[in-house]
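Reading group handout, session on sequence-to-structure problems. Before we discuss, look at one worked example. The prompt was deliberately terse, the way you'd type it at a terminal:

> structure Aminomethyltransferase, mitochondrial

The input record follows.
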Amino acid sequence: QTLVYGRDRIRFMESLVVGDIAELKPGQGTLTLLTNEKGGITDDLIVTNTSEDHLYVVSNAACADKDLAILRDRAAQLQATGSDVHLEVSDNALLALQGSPSMARVLQAGLSDDLAKLSFMNSITTTVFGVPGCRVTRCGYTGEDGVEISVPAARAVELAEQLLGVPDVWLAGLAARDSLRLEAGLCLYGNDIDETVTPAEAGLMWTLG
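And the output record:
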């Protein structure tokens, strides 16, 4: 999870990904692709234009180190030409709660905000089951209704245990994720898409701004 600040943050992000970041409303995010010089997909990212004057970027965990190196290198290039952009790496943990209709019911019980008002690919900063400072984004990688919760690392276990205390909630591993993605026809980085595959070849032209 990387936070991008500065008045040139939109231009910075659009120089790296295929999406139209400038059109995102406050609190709105999009799935986009970080591409290399040949158009190959270095990673698929979720980029959110937050209401707090920064972009919130979520990488795949397996690609986080290489993504951050690319972001830092590009930021340095732009800074050298006088652009105003700087990065902050979040140490928050990320929990995903996926599956309809149970997800909404489970989460709403611990949320002061009305989850019904949080539409797909939008996010809010809120308190979740007594843990303040969480960013809840209505998105996911299973093809189901779901959220990803960015939670301060020191309280991640506490929040996970609270969620797992609900009978409808179970831990799910990568095999469950992979089978759900196959059913939903969603690309999986390192399997269907990688640095040798372009957005066109992956059937992901809809991600292009």
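Points for discussion. First: The mean pLDDT is 95. Second: Strands lie at 2-5, 28-35, 41-49, 55-58, 86-89, 93-98, 123-128, 131-137, 146-151.
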